[in-house]
Specification:
single chain, about 525 residues, alpha/beta, TIM Barrel, 3-stranded antiparallel beta sheet, 19 helices, about 15% strand
């Protein structure tokens, strides 16, 4: 090949390369113009602190928030009912999110409820409403034998264990409790370093596994209990008899969520599901329960001690009341968990078909304590799908002194109810021990949202009390709540759920017929 031919070939091949590069460059520029912003968006999502979903699923997670942006326009067409039959829109989830984020939570164009539907409930307002300014109401917990009473908020964090929830979720809840001045129930999984790091008030729950106060055989250890209960942040102790999610069944922590740290905190072996026994080994009778209450109160230097249960057989609760009269020992509080409650893993049949719903349980427990003349000594905490100020108001009207919320607090953390709590694949990092997921929860941000949700809900609760013409929560009575029974038949709670006469269960001649069968079978010495 001649020099000239080589030169021509060089020029021709060079021209082809330049042309190809130019064409590819144009496409590359277009590709970069499209892909570049997506890459930038993804990097931003990975490092921002506001949204756990976007941190875990950069770019793709934005589609959830896109759908949320027009949810308000369509949610009125999707209405569901709670166990009372009262219509509850799915917008209550949106309400929690908005309050947690500090966003506007007002609604235009009136109620979306079907007010003519049987089961619709409302609070009576007054022609002379009050303008209340105390947006930090307190409830005193501590009976006659309590040396360290606790002034609690009407709304507190319900029992959720470290193990069921991630360490960042626990720290966010506890820091939120510290910021907002309310309490955080540990759940039966024991006190962990993450419950203690931020100094929020603690209600330490003691379950059948005695985690945090058990010996090598799994029995109650008074020495470790005394040490942990002496902590300043531990304000109350709660003995868990049963829970609404799975009454009659012990707590469950799947092996997939059991880490070395959690195993050490609970003092259990690795590699197996952590299933608490269905019943306590420290006592087996109503009198035994009350002696255990007394023992824990003494070991904790007089802190409030109570127990939590989901009502099952009515005669067994009445047996506890009989034991109170017989021994003179009373708990400082009783937490009543509704059968519809629970945020953790549970067998389907236990969740759906076991346990008395919260409204029925609350009415029964309140009447039982009044009937035995014990109501003035014992506070009642209600738990079970409590999301709004009206839910709290309704529970207090039926006899509760305070309310615990698990669902509302989880939603304020950013829970999207993906229902993967038992698989360790929670997409928000709340209910997982996977460090690559739970690191998506930024404690300083999420704790503020927990505090915001509490503050705004209590503010609305106080405003409802004022609208009813009342001065404080103590004045709420069943007559203030109305319910459409059917058609034009409207009755208030005083008509629907009559309150028994104080002390009527102490005299066989005055026992109401509705209590007679269960009272006959209630035995203080045996369940």
């Amino acid at each position: 090949m001649t020099v000239r031919q080589k030169f021509v070939l060089f020029i021709f091949s060079s021209s082809l390369l330049i042309a190809a590069f130019s064409i590819l460059s144009i496409y590359a520029l277009w590709a970069f113009a499209i892909v570049g912003p997506i890459i930038a968006m993804g990097l931003y999502d990975m490092f921002q602190a506001k949204h756990s979903i976007r941190r875990l699923y950069p770019v793709l997670g934005r589609f959830r928030y896109l759908l949320e942006s027009f949810r308000d326009e369509i949610q009125q067409y999707f209405v569901e009912s709670d166990t009372s039959g009262a219509p509850i829109p799915r917008e209550f989830r949106s309400l929690v999110y908005q309050r947690a984020k500090g966003a506007r939570d007002t609604r235009p164009f009136g109620t979306i409820f079907d007010v003519n539907r049987a089961g619709y409930e409302w609070v009576n307002h007054s022609m002379q409403p009050k303008h209340l300014t105390d947006f930090n109401p307190r409830v005193k917990f501590g009976g006659p034998d309590c040396k360290q009473p606790y002034m609690a908020s009407p709304l507190n964090i319900s029992a959720m264990s470290y193990g069921a929830l991630s360490k960042n979720a626990i720290m966010s809840l506890n820091r939120g409790a510290k910021l907002g001045g309310f309490s955080h129930n540990t759940g039966e999984g024991s006190l962990s370093p993450y419950h203690l790091e931020h100094g929020g008030d603690i209600v330490w729950q003691i379950g059948t596994g005695y985690f945090g106060c058990r010996d090598d055989e799994g029995n109650f250890n008074p020495e470790t209990f005394k040490t942990n209960s002496a902590r300043d942040v531990v304000k109350m102790i709660e003995i868990k008899l049963s829970q609404g999610a799975k009454p009659g069944h012990g707590g469950i922590l799947p092996a997939a969520k059991l880490t070395e740290e959690i195993a050490a905190i609970r003092h259990v072996p690795m590699g197996k599901d952590v299933v608490s026994p269905p019943a306590h080994s420290a006592f087996s009778t109503p009198i035994g329960l009350l002696n255990f209450v007394k023992k824990l109160r003494e070991l904790s230097e007089g802190k409030p001690v109570g127990f939590k249960l989901c009502i099952g057989r009515r005669d067994e609760f009445l047996a506890i009341c009989k034991a109170m009269i017989e021994t003179g020992i009373t708990p400082d509080f009783i937490t009543v968990d509704g059968g519809e409650g629970g945020t953790g893993a549970a067998p389907v049949e236990m969740t759906n078909s076991v346990g008395t719903p919260i409204k029925d349980a609350l009415i029964f427990v309140n009447n039982a304590l009044i009937g035995f003349g014990l109501k003035d000594k014992i506070r009642i905490i209600a738990s079970g799908k409590m999301l709004s100020a009206f839910h709290i108001l309704r529970a207090i009207a039926l006899g509760a002194d305070a309310v615990n919320s698990a669902r509302g607090m989880m939603l304020s953390l950013g829970c999207i109810q993906a229902r993967t709590c038992n698989s360790d694949h929670c997409p928000t990092g709340i209910a997982t021990q996977n460090p690559s997921r739970n690191k998506a929860i930024i404690v300083t941000d999420k704790s503020q949202r927990v505090a915001n949700f509490h503050k705004e809900t209590i503010t609305n609760l106080v405003e409802l009390v004022g609208a009813a013409g009342l001065d404080n929560l103590d004045q709420l009575e069943p007559r203030h709540i109305n319910r459409r029974v059917q058609g034009t038949d409207v009755q208030n709670y005083a008509q629907l759920y009559p309150v028994v006469t104080k002390g009527c269960l102490l005299d066989p001649s005055t026992i109401p017929e509705s209590f007679s069968y269960d009272m006959e079978h209630a035995n203080a010495a045996s369940w």
